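Narrative summary of target 7.
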Amino acid sequence: MSKGLFDCTGKVTLVTGGNGGIGLGFAMGTAKMGGDVAIWARNEEKNAAAKQALLEAGARRVETYVVDVSTEEAIVAGYEQLMADFGRVDCVFANSGGAPGYNSVFDIPTEQWHKFLDVALHGAFFTLREGARHMVKRAEAGEPGGSLVACGSLSLFQGMAGKQNYAGSKAAVAAIIRGMAVEFGPLAIRANVVAPGLIMTPMMGGEKNEQAMANMFGPQVPLKRVGYPSDFEGIGAYLCSDASSFLTGQTIIIDGGVMVRP
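Modeled conformation, tokenized:
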């Protein structure tokens, strides 16, 4: 049964880090529009809870996998299993990452610099590249189309002391996305970035800390509140569905208006 403009029926969406936070919000949007969802994340208990929630929301099928996206080998193997289970992938949301964690560039240990980029940059690149590989193969067989999505942030535009590892990974992935938009456009495969503002996720340190941050920063946002994972359901459904078939190479900011305030 068609679910309207954002219908995701018959489409398979892979979300890395999709068992909570922004990733689960994105996945929930596709689930509500009848899509199939694959989750890559490392916590089996959270994976199981996310699967149940997505099925209850309307997903036709949900599978979860324990995949560590810090290695190319694990990503390639993850896609092999996904293709064996679903036979296709239509949308990829490279969302896995971590919190910056430092107040000065001098505080970032060299080992942590590399460890962070293994997931946030290299993991995102290999996730997008291998997803594109399967989309291109399908397009060459006569079925063009697909949607590659990376999770950016406002650090693409605003300098933040001590967050160079985080901002650097986001800026690099955004550049990768633009290159993919040009390279794969002839096959109707589009590539975009979703750039969140301040979103209340488990990374914020618990409900008490989330509420304190919401009270502190919410009034500074033009829409007078902070964001939540549910605010990414709409963009998830849109970017997975054919409604976004003429959107590519763009950075979509979801921040309640922070970037345009005086």
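The beta strands are 12-16, 36-40, 62-65, 91-94, 146-151, 189-196, 251-254.
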